[in-house]
Amino acid sequence: MSSRAIPQNDSIAARFASDPRLWVLLLCAAQLLLWTAIPRFLSMSLPLDVVTNGGIPWGNQWQWGYFEHPPLPSWLVALWYDALGDTGVFLLSQVAVAVTYVFVFLLGREIMPAKWAAVGTILLAGVYYFSIPTPEFNHGITELPLWAAATFAYYKALKTRRTAWWLALGLAAGLGMLAKYSTAILLAVIVLHALGSARQVFKSPGPYLAVAICLVALGPHLAWLVRNHFPTIDYATRRAGHAHSLIQRPIVALQFVLTQILDIAPALAIAAIGGLLTRDALRRRALDDDGWFLLVLGIGPVLLTAVIALVSGLGLRTMWGVPMCNLAGLLIVRFGRERWPAASLTRIAWAACCVFALMLVAYVLRTSVVPELAGKPSRTQWPDREIASAFGAAWKQKTHAPLRIVAGDGWLAGLIVVRGEPMPSVWTNASFAQSPWISLAEVRVRGALLVRQITRRGDFAIPAGFQFQGEKDFAWPYEKKAPALRIAWWILPPGAP
Question: In sequence order, what are the residues at sequence separation of 6 or more whose Cβ sits closer than 8 angstroms to the Cβ of residue 35?
């Protein structure tokens, strides 16, 4: 689009059009700086998913799989924590988001003018999944850049027919599956798109090489699954739940779809404020190949997930949609392309900045202000160092040996493990099946500390041989209205028979 199409009253449009990459860079910088610094400053303890099952305590064991999840996020968060401490954990999430922005922009630049590809990327600042949930690094956040990379590689493979892009797709797919099995939804949508719009690619070796690379990346994890009787599949099925009646199924599916629409609502508002989104945008008559690509890859995963739930009766969790909204901004821009000459880039930029700031404010309120007013501490406001220090000292006093194994639920035991120096091993729920890196022989030689929050007393049975030591109270750092945190503890002395 020529500069003559830029509205005269658009004060920053010329600078935006001159180098759209700068605006994507600014978005990435703001994401990395603000969404790392503010959560890090407000947090005393680390987020739930970073500490509990699938987080640092498991990642430090370097397994090819864990009973709840595939291993890639656990490895990454353990590495970044070892390298940069608490800051590394929060930074890792924002690196994942920033990399996603880059791949979305690269894809958009292939489909539309770079200026509008940048707008489509900036609109993602108005998608819920790119803001408030991101400080808690988990499997969904890990998927974000891998889905974006796979989508970009697939587009380039279709357009160039180059083998390298098929190999890149296979690698991104394999890593995505090592992050979370729901990546299979994206891969299924890619196959459906290829069957419908690019069937000729199946006559080339590219797709089969992609499958081969994906399987190579997944190979060790698949072997682990077979050896351990597929525990992650059982866990995923149990966590999803089941909509038993035929009446419940469409309700579950519709709720999932509507939730994803609500999650991108701020992005739609930004586009509307900028004059990019009108009713006419919903009345497009025909789509070219690129428009169809965005529509299928952008909306397909959400719809396919809903259809699977409708047919199978499986329940759905709304946060499974985290990586499914990557293309929301590009879709909005593409469907509003007839409004490009009249749209105001200044209003879009200012609206995006306002939404970005509001998301930060909402995060602060949710994690710090509201819990303090309600007297219910958030997960990032636990006295974790005090807890770890107290039980480490108590263990040493009782046993005169280093603390090597901590048993308990993933959260409480994980807090002690993460803050331990040196870091002990976690024995999740005192279960050898859930912590295969712990053996009975090792427990007998090294002993173990077992902890349990009083209000969670029925979570798991205390194994034989553990000796009850009493209870310890801990004051909350900020939530003075909340009753003291009371933790019961047991020890199995080293060398116990």
Answer: 90, 93, 94, 97, 131, 134, 135, 360
Classify residue 375: in a domain, yes or no. no
pTM: 0.92
Domain finish residue from 369, 399, 420: 369
Question: Residue 406: enclosing H or E segment and its boundaries?
Answer: strand 405-408
Domain that holds residue 483: 382-492
Closest CA to 423 of 405, 407, 440, 438: 405
Residue 309's φ and ψ, nearest 5 degrees, are: -65, -40
Q: How far is CA 179 from the centre of its chain?
A: 9
Q: Is residue 377 part of a domain?
A: no
DSSP 443-471: HHHH-EEEEEEGGGTTSSPPPTT-EEEEE
Residue 3 predicted with pLDDT over 50: no
- Asked if 136 and 207 sit in the same domain, the reply is yes
Distance (Å, whole) CA 269 – CA 443: 57
Average pLDDT over the chain, rounded to an integer? 90
- Distance from C-alpha of 260 to C-alpha of 347, rounded to nearest angstrom: 25
Closest C-alpha to 384, from 237, 485, 251, 299: 485
In terms of Cβ atoms closer than 10 Å to its own Cβ (0-12, 13-18, 19+), residue 37 is middle
424 assigned to some structural domain: yes
Cα separation, 371 vs 482, in Å, equals 10
Last residue of one domain, picked from the residues 313, 348, 369? 369
* Rg of the chain, C-alpha, whole Å: 25
Q: Which residue has better confidence, 427 or 10? A: 427
